[in-house]
Amino acid sequence: MQDRESIYRQVIDAISHSDTTVLDRFLAEQLIDHNPIPNQSPGRIGFKEWMASARTSFPDLRGMIEDVILCKDEYLVGRVRWRGTQQGPFAGLPPTQKAVAMDAIHIVRFDADLIVEWWGIADIFGAIHQLGGKVMLE
């Protein structure tokens, strides 16, 4: 049995390298993604759809884990800084060819060596601002 931090680090690295085989190994088929993108399918398939969408916007997307906090029992919290160059549409913005750095917080629940739930909150407003977009709050 691998430790939670090692599995989480491998998943972030897999996203950085578009390696779906690692996701197949560590994400439950019926993964619950609590913050899906619009029209995302459920389960591991949906998580892969999110990854493909992110890599369409930022083909060179790379995640650097800044902090990992191991919580009670089966939970882990991670803080990641994602970096990439916008080469596809993102949040309604056309490609800008600008570099962006976006922080995200993940809460991950494990069952043995599988991630069964994933919460992900990213600083989308900060990324839009870096790309020259306007954030309008009503």
Residue-averaged pLDDT, rounded? 95
N-to-C SSE string, H for helix and E for strand: HHEHEEEEH
Sheet with most strands: strand arrangement: 1-5-4-3-2
Total number of beta strands: 5
Please report which band the strand proportion falls in: under 5%, 5-15%, 15-25%, 25-35%, 35-45% or over 45%: 35-45%
Which SSEs are present, and which pair or pack?
Layout: H1 4-16, H2 20-26, E1 27-33, H3 43-57, E2 62-70, E3 75-85, E4 99-111, E5 114-122, H4 124-130
Parallel strand pairs: 1-5
Antiparallel strand pairs: 2-3, 3-4, 4-5
Summary, kept brief:
With 138 residues, the protein is of the alpha+beta class. The protein is 30% helix and 36% strand.
How would you describe this protein?
The protein has 4 helices and 5 strands. It is of the alpha+beta class. The protein has a domain at 4-78 and 105-122: Nuclear Transport Factor 2, Chain: A, CATH 3.10.450. It has a 5-stranded mixed β-sheet. The termini are far apart.
Short descriptors:
single chain, 138 residues, 4 helices, 30% helix
